[in-house]
Structure formats: structure tokens, C-alpha cells
Amino acid sequence: MSTRARARRRPISWRRVVVAVIAPVAALIFSLLVSSIALLLIHKSPFTAFHQMLSYGLQTNSMIAIVNTAIPLYIAGLAVAIGFKMNLFNIGVEGQYRLAALLAAAVGAELHLPPPIHITVILLIAIAVGAVWAGVAGLLKVTRGVSEVISTIMLNFIAFGLIAYLLAPGRLQKPVSASDLTTQTRTIPDSGLMPALLHNPFQSLSGVLIIAVILGLLYYVLVWRTRFGYDLRAAGLNPEAARVSGVGLRTLIMQTMLLSGAIAGLVGMNQVLFFSRAYTLDFPQDLGFSGIAVALVGRNNPIGIALAALLFGFLQRSSQILDLNNVPKEITQIMTGVIILSVVIAYEVVQRWSQAQEVKAAAEQTRHATAAADAKVSA
Hints:
The chain is mostly helical.
């Protein structure tokens, strides 16, 4: 590569670093400032509160809990992000993962297979249910032009109603005894559970982390190293140009919704295969909606999504120590909301500044090239 070519590449690389690093850092600093103001208004020291959060969050038990919390958030973020790449808003991850978890747990409890096969069957059922439920929204969009935002929201409510119907006596609910009144499916045998990666007296590290890592790698390869990913990104940037270049938008929409739903089906597996061993009435909720925030903060990048999931896990964990020290734990909710809002604004501002600098640099190069051409003609 020539020196001139390297020189032309440096500004673009530097601007990418600015967009990738400065924007989230600025958003985090801004959220700390807003949270500090909120703490001062209730006569609490921001430095003391943040020090307590950091000290508690860096304890071994807390770090394991943060990772376990981040696992479903990361998977949910990936499910949302793959749709975002094509400007598709899969708001239905909530219903997709909860319905998938219910059916996967119910089927898994009835099977008695060797551990690897048993776990694989449960995962495949969850993937299939999530893909089918998201595929309904995709089908409505490509055949009737129904907005995926509306259809996925409506499918969420249908899924919640279906779960309430199925998780009832005489259907998928475990028979209730006098000593156990828990509303849940039957318990999955040990052969269908994920092992712990790290044992701890208080909370062990979930083996579902391996699945999350594999999903992140597959997401990166699919989006940035395949023809499908290229078409996906091209359609997201300019659907009309992608269509003219030969991209089948209807097929791509359907494939993207199926993939998004398939990933969403795995969101609840951390709870099913490691913690509760069943689908319970108090199954974790709002992970799908949190995944939207994680994908936005992570800018649809697998590494960014991972960092965002860990940040949200840290805030959720550290809120416990605030509550114990008479500091309203809602301060972490303020931080979360401000982070989401400020990240979106910061990225947009930095992105526009970067684009303006690129246009300015291109105009400067054109001016120099024109001047050189005129000088050559004059000579």
C-alpha cells in the first residue's frame, strides 16, 4: 500500500474510533452528572453512592451475578440487533422468548436422553418456537404490508394469553401437591441442564454463557462476513438501492424476522436450563424490552452489545447495595434511562460531525486534484 493510500485511510479509521469510543463515554459521563444531581437533590453524596456501587460490583459474588444477569440481556440484544440492521423493529422478543421457554421447558421435562442430546433438543425447540412466532410478523409484513412494530406488539399480548392458558392445571402445569403449590411446568431432569462454568457458594457461573458467546461469534460472521449480511446492511442503509441491485427484499425481511425470532427463543434458556429448571409463574420478564435498550447502547455490534449488557447487569446488581445504605435504588433506573437517551443523542451528534468532516476532507482532496490538473494543463 502506498504512503498516499495509507494517509487517506487514517482519517476514516480515526473517525470510526471517535464514533465507537467517545460517544458512549460521553453518554456515560453525562448520565453520571445527571444521577449526581438527583442524589444531591435528596441530600445524598454522589461520591459515596458511586463508590459503594463500584466496591460492591467488583466483589467476586457480584461479578458472577452480573455476568449471569448479562447473559439473557446479551442474547436479547442480538435478537433485536439483527432486525435493526435492516431497519426492522422486532418489538416481540418478549413474547417470543417467554413462549419458547414455556414450550421448551414442558417438552424437556418429558424427555430422558443423554445430556448433550437432551440439551440440544430443548435448545432446538426454543429456537423453532421463537422463529415461528416472529415469522408470523414477517409473513404479515411481506404479504399484507403490516408494520412489524404493530404486529409484534400484538403478538406479545397473544403470547402472554397463550402462556396463561397453557400454564394451568390439566395442561402444562405440574400437578400441585399440598406441600408444593408452585405454579410451573414439570422439572427438567439433570440430563437437560447446563453445567456451571464456575462454582461459587452464593451463585455459580451459568454454562449458558458458552451459548451466548457462540451466538455473538455467529452474529458477527453472518452480518459482516457473508453475502446475506452484506444484503442485510445494504437494505438497511438504502432499501431502494438494494432492491435495484438485485436484493429480494421480501425474502430478506422474512429471513431476518425468522433469525431474530430464533435468537429470541434462546433468551429464557439461562433461567430454564440453569436456575429454575422449569417455566415458573414468576419467570423473568421484560428481558425482550431491555434487549432493545442493550442493542441501542451497543450500536448493534456484538462487542458493544456485550459491554452494554454487562453495564446493565452492573447497575441492576449495584442497586442492591444502595438500597441497603438508605439510598433509593431507583437512582440506577435514572442512570439507565439517561444512558440510553444520551447514547442515542451522542452517537447521532458524533456521527453527523464525522460525516461533515469526511465531506470537508473529500472537498479538499477534490480541490487539490483540480488545481493539480489545471497546473498540468497550463504546463
